[in-house]
Amino acid sequence: MINLFLWFNSMKRLLFDLKISRPGLWFPTIWIYLVPFGNEEGFLNTFPFWLGLFFVTFPLNYLVYGLNDYNDFEADAINSRKGNYLFGAKARKEQLKPILRRIALVILPFFIVFTLLSGIKMLLLLVLMVFVNIIYNFEPFRLKERPPFEILIQSGYVLTVFFCIQLNGLPKLPWQTVIYLGLFAFQAHIAGEIMDIEPDEQAGKTTTAVLLGRKKSKILMLLLLVVESYLLLYWFGDWVLASFLMLFSVWLILDIFFIFKDRPYTNEQMVFFGYAINASAILTMIWVLYSAKLLMIQ
Asked: For position 120, what pLDDT does the model report?
């Protein structure tokens, strides 16, 4: 009976940790990790590929969102879209007390294995990943509340592609690809900020979306989508991915000026958008791997 109770508590804690890692928001790290494999053959048969792919799902996102939740429990407590595997846990302060130790226990074994596999450059890269998340979340930096730096620091997501290259021994990416991936990270973050305007305001948290308001923030996101679409055509000649972003831009224009305008989304609508974004991410991942367009400059 005691063993069953311990097992139940362990499973409950593991599921809570999984919820903290926000599986519904794993797509940016997975998407970026896969980009360098566009011109490769046989990578599905290699151990480093699968180990790296697993790392950029739960472990890396547990680090990213665990540190975020550790410092944001007040805003999360009044955020109605939280408390699920799509958008993350709604945790009490006492539940988050052991989170730093648990993050270390999850991350450190990977640091050791990746360093043994890929050398000191990998260790420095992993340390940089942690550093970016520290200055984003903790004082005296806490860039998450210093607009527009909370958006610009999202370029740290691009470190995932350098992690992939170092671990799998892949060729360097064109600098244009790195720029595009940075814009992709900016756009994804702004979308989250737009959904969180009300709880962030109530918690006294300052973000770019809070400062600009919902409509102007959507226009900023629209401008990023237009720039991304142009660069996809001009640099890579990728009509498929560019068309997808242009279609998204058309939807956003309808959203801004005709449908939602300045009204917040309901929880049901945000859940629908979350699943739609994940579905589109899977489709575009397949295209990016199949076409390798993001690796070929015109």
From this structure: 97
Q: To 10 degrees, the CA torsion angle through 44, 47, 50, 52?
A: -130
C-alpha 130/C-alpha 124 separation (Å) is 10
Q: What is the DSSP letter of 84?
A: B
Q: pLDDT of 73-121, one tens digit each? A: 888 889 999 999 999 998 888 889 999 999 999 999 999 999 999 999 9
Determine the average pLDDT of the residues in 32-43: 95
SS3 88: strand
What is the value of pTM for the model shown?
A: 0.95
Closest CA to 164 of 280, 48, 288, 261: 48
Yes or no: say if 288 and 245 are a contact pair by the CB < 8 Å rule: no
In this prediction, residue 39 carries a pLDDT of: 86
Over the range 236-253, which residues count as b (16 or more CB within 10 Å of their CB) and which as e? bebeebbebbbebbeebe
pLDDT at 105: 97
Q: How far apart are CA 92 and CA 95, in angstroms?
A: 5
Please state, in angstroms and rounded to a whole number, the distance separating the CA atoms of residues 112 and 279: 34
Residues 113 and 115: their CA atoms lie apart, in Å, by: 5
User: How many independent structural domains does the chain possess?
Assistant: 1
Identify the domain containing residue 47 by its residue range.
Answer: 2-295
Give the tokens for residue 284.
């575009």
pLDDT at 8 over 70: no
Angle between helices 47-55 and 27-34 (to 10 degrees): 150
Task: Identify the CATH number of the domain in which residue 240 sits.
Answer: 1.10.600
